Amino acid sequence: PLDRTAREYLERRQELDKRLTRTARTAARIASSRQRLEELREARRATAEEVACREADIKSLFESLSYTRTRLSELESEVNTLRTARASYPQKELDNLMRRFGRLGP
C-alpha cells in the first residue's frame, strides 16, 4: 500500500509538473503576444502620424498649385489686356514713342 501511495503521489506530482510547465509556456507565449501587439499598435500610431503629415503636405501643395494657377490666369489676362492696348495704337504712334522713350519691352 505504501509503494502504491508513493507511486500515485509521484504520478500526480509529474502530472502537476507537466501542467505547470504548460502553464508557464502559455504565459510566456501570451507575454510575447502582448509585446508584439504593443509593437504593432505603436507602428500603427506612427503610420497614422506619418499619413497625417503627408496629407497636410499634399493639402499645402494643392493650395500652392491653386494659387499659382490663379496667378497665372491673372497674368495671362494682363498680358492679353496689354496686347490689346498695344494693338489699338497705330504703328506710327508706337514709332514716335520708341524714339522718345526707347524700346519699352521685348
In short:
The chain is built from two helices and no strands.
The helix tally amounts to: 2
Strand portion: under 5%
Run of helices and strands: HH
In terms of structural class, how would the helical and strand content be classed?
mainly alpha
Largest sheet descriptor: none
Mean pLDDT: 93
Q: Radius of gyration, Cα only, in angstroms?
A: 43 Å
Structure description:
By secondary structure, the chain is mainly alpha-helical. Helix content is 92%, strand content 0%. The chain has 2 helices and no strands. The termini are far apart. The mean pLDDT is 93.
Topology:
Blueprint: H1 2-88, H2 91-101
Question: Keyphrases for this structure?
Answer:
rod-shaped; single chain; mainly alpha; 106 residues
